[in-house]
Structures are given as structure tokens and as C-alpha cells.
Amino acid sequence: MRFTGTYTALITPFRDGEIDIPAFQSLIERQISAGVTGIVPVGTTGESPTLDTDEHIEVIRLAIEFAAGRCEVIAGTGANSTSEAIELTQAAEKLGATASLQVCPYYNKPSQEGLYLHFKAIADATKLPIMLYSVPGRSGIEIAPETAARLAADCANITAIKEAGGSVDRVNQLVQALPENFGILSGDDPLTLPFIASGANGLVSVASNLIPEVIVKLVNACLAGDFQTALALQKQYYPLMRGLMSLDVNPVPIKTAVALQGHCSPELRLPLAPLSITNQGALAELLQSYHLL
Hints:
The chain has helices spanning 21-34, 53-67, 82-95, 112-124, 136-139, 145-154, 168-177, 192-197, 212-223, 227-246, 252-260, 277-289; strands spanning 5-9, 14-15, 18-19, 38-40, 72-76, 99-103, 130-134, 158-163, 183-186, 202-205. By secondary structure, it is of the alpha/beta class. The protein starts with a strand and ends with a helix. The model has no long low-confidence stretch (mean pLDDT 97).
């Protein structure tokens, strides 16, 4: 499977402590209407660490049901326990997910050999295509380009990496190390243009929960080599993309923004706390400046 295009890292709407199913369905419909390539349920933006196993699998099931084959569903099934990641991935495969997103194990801080063995064990346990997810800001370590290349060579179903280390040079390193048909996707909205210009071929987006049409247009322009259009969009929407990541830790600002539009409750699960009153005001002003409220 070739990963390319725009993938939305979905928020998980809650209401009174439970998954808000109607809000989740509505969110997915907006993504499909905007033309996203795929959706990514239960990743970082979906508050996966606060969902129990049954809820985690249920969110994946709902995403597959609501997408109804109209877009790809890349299920977030990674964990810092290899056996748990295998269990979640096999459940997603049985439900009919298109592929799996596998986050770099967090807290344990395995060696690169440990990372290789972890991801290889998961790949061996499923037929799903796998997108690796390197996010050192949350996991404390990164997937080295050499490790990604080793996995690409040894595991036919590991075919992409979501790069969220914030470095364009990392993209250059990955391009040098990985096969030409191996997908490299930006994990940071503001870095989409420079990442794709350096050889990436898509984006796993947070901002597309709010502005899917804009993000799809930006990614498509980049992939078509129309960097004049892409640069104009980047310049126009950079303050919004930056604000959604800087006013608080993701997914607090994006969920609050979608809630301010009336699409869901701003409810989060502890240990995530609501956006401060000051930053709520700043976010509302930012959205108003883009005529999003």
C-alpha cells in the first residue's frame, strides 16, 4: 500500500465521560466531504492513552463503519507493550481497517534493536500495511532512519513512516535511507510544505479536524508541484496551524476549536485539562480572524 495524501488524526469526542458517537460520525462525514485520503482514529489526537481497550477497539469499529469504504482508515493501534500493540492491531484487522499506525514505544525507551524487534513482531502478526510513527517529543526516542530502512527491508507490510520530529533534515535522512516507494508523511501541519518539498508525500493532520478543505488543498498543491499555491496557503494559514499546536498540548486546542464551532463538547479526559480561560479567548479570536466562528 502506498500512503500519500491527507490523513486526518481524528479527535475522539466525549460527552459525560462516554464516546459521543453522533459527533464522531459528523466529524468523519466532514472529512470525507472535504476529500481527505484517510482518517486516523485513536492516535495522539484521539486521546488514545485514556481509552480502555474496549473503547479503543470501539472507536476503530465506529470509524470503519462510518467511513463505509469512502476513505482509508488507518487505525492507531500502537502501544509501549508489544503484546498490546499486536492485540489491538489484530482486532483492527478483523474489523476491516485499511492499515495500522504504530507509534514509537513511549516511556520504556527501548534501544534501536528493541524498536526493530517490537515493530517486526507486530508486522509478523498482521497482514495490515503499517505506518511507523516517530514522535520523540512524546516517546523520548526516535526511530532512526537506519532502523526504518531495516524494517522496510525485512517487513513487506511496513510501508510508511509518520515523521513528527519537527526536522526537515530528518526527512532528507529518511529519503536517503528508505526505498523510493516507502511513504514519508509529515506529522506537523506547519511543516507540510517543506517536508513534501524535501521528499515526503503526505500529511497526518491535526488542523484538518477544523479546516479539512484547506489542508487537502495545501497537500494536493504540494504533491502537484504547485508550490506557489501551496506557499500562499501556508502563509495564510500558518498562524492558525501554529496556534492549534502552541496554545496548549495537542489535542486540547483542536478539540476546543471544534467545540467552539458547535460540533462537539470540549470534554477531555484527565490528565488533560481544559484550555485556560486566557487561551480560550486567544483561540476564539484566532478562529474569528479566519471567519471560522
